Amino acid sequence: MKKNLVWMLCILLQMTLTAQAQDREYVILVHGGAGVLKSVVDSPERSAQYYAALDSAVSIGNALLEQGKPGPEVVMAVINYFEGNPLFNSGKGAAVTSAGTFELDAAIMEGKDLTAGSVAGVKRVKHPINAAYAVKTKTAHVMLSGEGADTFAEQQGLEMVDNMYFATPSTMKWVEQFKAESKKNGTVGCVVLDKDGNLTAGTSTGGMLRKQWGRVGDAPVIGAGTYADNEGVAVSCTGHGEYFIRHVVGYNLSTRVKMLHQPIEQAANEIIFGELNTNEGNGGLIAVDKNGNFAMPFNRDGMFRGVAYKEKKTGKVVKALGIGKELKY
Ligand code: ASP
Fold first, then answer.
1. How far apart, in Å, are the Cα atoms of 96 and each of 15, 103, 163, 299?
2. Closest by alpha carbon to 62, among 310, 316, 327, 322?
3. Sign of the Cα pseudo-torsion (221, 163, 187, 170, in order)
4. Residue 72 C-alpha to ligand 1 middle, in angstroms?
5. Is 104 a pocket residue for ligand 1 (Cβ < 6 Å)?
6. In CA terms, which of 13, 43, 199, 208 is 20 to 30 Å from 264?
7. How do residues 169-225 score in pLDDT, each as one tens digit?
8. 0.70 exceeded by the pTM?
9. Ligand 1 touching residue 249 (CB < 6 A)
10. Strand order in the sheet with 233-239
11. Are 97 and 81 in contact, with CB atoms under 8 Å apart?
12. Which ligand 1 atom is nearest residue 240's CA?
């Protein structure tokens, strides 16, 4: 009895401290995939390209949040930007399947009402995240796949492209040379806490390089690669999708925060460095809770990532970007 009381008091104290320490008006986090290529780290020119892209993504989101736009609008605008940038494994630049084609996955979820939409294995819709949002808002379903999802996207008036639109000289090189050892990284994700206090998460990817055609990763699986609950967290994952599905990482993290009242960083670290690592599940995640606390751990050599938030008291916007271990403020 006494032990329980002490335990509850500890949790209450921890919750109060965390909330007070992180009084943020809004927060945006982005990722552009985990497992940074050595060729990027070793080349100042290539690193600069990635930093510039991360900066653009964070700035797009920050400006919209500042205007008071709702989370889904912000997440879609940021992911649309990434999907159009061939540096990343989403939209144009997506990883190629073993069949030499492009099959894209995406999901979006709102924490205020647990509404979600996702698409798996789409081949023709230019911005898969927009198709995921249309599934969320225009159907009674959560997930559409393959040709059904593409046809639905077309009927919604979304921009359609030929499958080869997603190819770039670098992805086609892998098809021709059949090189599996050099992985394509750069799944993209965005999570936000908006000015209304709502959480939203979105993820978009071409999946794992040379994946078997028909394979679906964690990104469009609600609760695995993408999840949002205002009482828990908004989270977007990147890495070896099969492990993120098995460990139900998104829901796992959200529930630790919601039910166990674990601080977000502790909960995220336990999953990424504990549960996942022991099973050789490599990757990382970005996550934010309703108080603006956030985490972005990864268990590989790096993760393309960025964060911006506005302090309530000072009105100051803080921004940081990272590729390797260090964050640059
Ligand atoms: N998680 C993605 C997948 O397994 C790939 C990645 O994030 O790099 O499809």
1. 44, 8, 11, 24
2. 310
3. positive
4. 21
5. no
6. 208
7. 877 776 666 544 445 568 999 999 999 999 999 999 999 887 888 999 999 999 999
8. yes
9. no
10. 226-228, 233-239, 283-289, 294-295
11. no
12. 4
